[in-house]
Design goal:
Layout lengths: L2 H8 L2 H12 L6 E2 L9 H14 L2 E5 L4 E5 L1 H7 L3 H14 L2
Antiparallel strand pairs: 1-3, 2-3
Protein name: DNA-binding transcriptional ArsR family regulator
GO molecular function: DNA binding
InterPro entries: HTH_ArsR_DNA-bd_dom, HTH_MetalResp_TranReg, WH-like_DNA-bd_sf, WH_DNA-bd_sf
């Protein structure tokens, strides 16, 4: 997990939204890819989840007919302290801003 790869993955608003939603959750819960409303085609969503997985931000688990998505919170916090808090704070400003 390197800074450049992580920042490149988070540069896309769809991918940043996935990570932020996972980070904002009160507990680390595995979600399915389809639980995120990304407003993109299925193939584009697959690409976004692959980029997040390859960057080290999420762990994907293949269950055959669905994929589980889990934030790699410990690793992210250890490597980039404060990054997840920053993303959640940014989300809060966007939601409550003008």
């Amino acid at each position: 997990m390197t800074l450049g790869v992580v920042l490149a993955a988070l540069a896309d608003p769809h991918r940043r939204r996935v990570v932020t939603e996972l980070a904002a959750a009160s507990a680390d819960v595995e979600r399915t890819c389809s639980s995120f409303t990304l407003q993109v085609t299925k193939s584009t969503a697959t690409h976004h989840f692959r980029v997040l997985s390859e960057s080290g931000l999420i762990q994907l688990t293949d269950y055959g007919n669905r994929k589980g998505v889990l934030l790699r919170r410990e690793e992210i916090d250890r490597r980039f302290p404060g990054l997840l808090s920053l993303l959640v704070a940014e989300r809060g400003q966007q939601v409550s801003g003008p």
